[in-house]
Amino acid sequence: MTFSFDPERNEIEALLEIAGALQGRRVLEIGAGAGRLTWRYAAMADQVLGIDPNPERVARAQEEMPPDLQSRVTFLESSLEHYQVIHQGAPFDLALMSWSL
Q: Which structural domain range is residue 39 located in?
């Protein structure tokens, strides 16, 4: 039996309804995990940084990154608290946190 997350694409539609258009925006995804949600919206954004404190999930996301997203998506092993301390780059337009509680 094959299992698919959100086959009707309700999750991405709800995200876009709340966040608005992603074109030209810099997105910080908190708790990105292995990129399950990232792959679904990243082509619409200008840049995406996914952070997750779990090194195995970050490694999996980096390994499974679609080639067409390599220029716009980066994953970093970090908790949000630690990232806030080290981050000194340009600000983000949007922060996402889904399934991360």
A: 21-97
